[in-house]
Task: structure prediction
Amino acid sequence: MKTLKRYQYERYAVLCRLAYPRVFKQTRYGFDPNGQRIINNSRGKTLIRVLWSKDKEEVIVIIKGSHSIKDWLLNFAMWHKSCQATLGLPYSIHAGFYSLLHQESLPSHRDDRLGDSVYIRLETVLTPLINQGKRISLTGHSSGGAIGLVFADYLERKYPNIIKRVVTFGQPAIGGWQFRRHYQLSRRTFRICCDIDIVTFLPPIPLMYWHVGKMLWLYNERVYENTPTILRLGRSLLSWLIRPFSYHLMSKYIRNKDFFDDH
Result:
């Protein structure tokens, strides 16, 4: 399995965080002045940013997580919905996240057509870049990471070897066992979990939902690889219980020495 280097992690993490503000200046991060396209959701709000440069091979697709009450309510639609008829994928996914992919994308550019869904709009934007020989990396936070997995798999099947990597942050599971079995990008997918982020354990239905890719758990100032969910949950619960006592350790006092001025 491929590795995720530190500079790559930092780049994707920074882009994911900065994609939430309404204004995003892509030139500050090495992309061309015209190297950004926005994909709106059904309310005309930014859901996805596509970033690229003429002199670089990699196109980066950034997908935002839930940022409205309606988006959060979709998390409760935990039944499965088949992707076969629309995306041609041999599995079902979380019905709420299916809705995010299939919602109408309101136009944000003169070339956008009325009535296109989010995944159709995104593919339309990416196709000319793919024809130029560029490869696609997808990154997303929370539900944005989850739907990024499905779209990446969809693209990889249509344009073999077009996906460079998929990096998700705080991502809930999106599919069942058939999704895990048929997902083609496990060796190029990195799922970042931070400390005791409860969203990474959702949906809370054992054996109905499965994760894919390589899991990197940022916990207690270390990175753990592919820690089993039950072990990660156990350590997280234990951490909640003992955290008040951990602040009594001398290591905590030493760590905070920089709070004092030199005299």
Remarks:
- The domain at 6-259 is CATH 3.40.50.1820 (Rossmann fold).
- The CA atoms of residues 100 and 152 lie 15 Å apart.
- The chain has a mean pLDDT of 89.
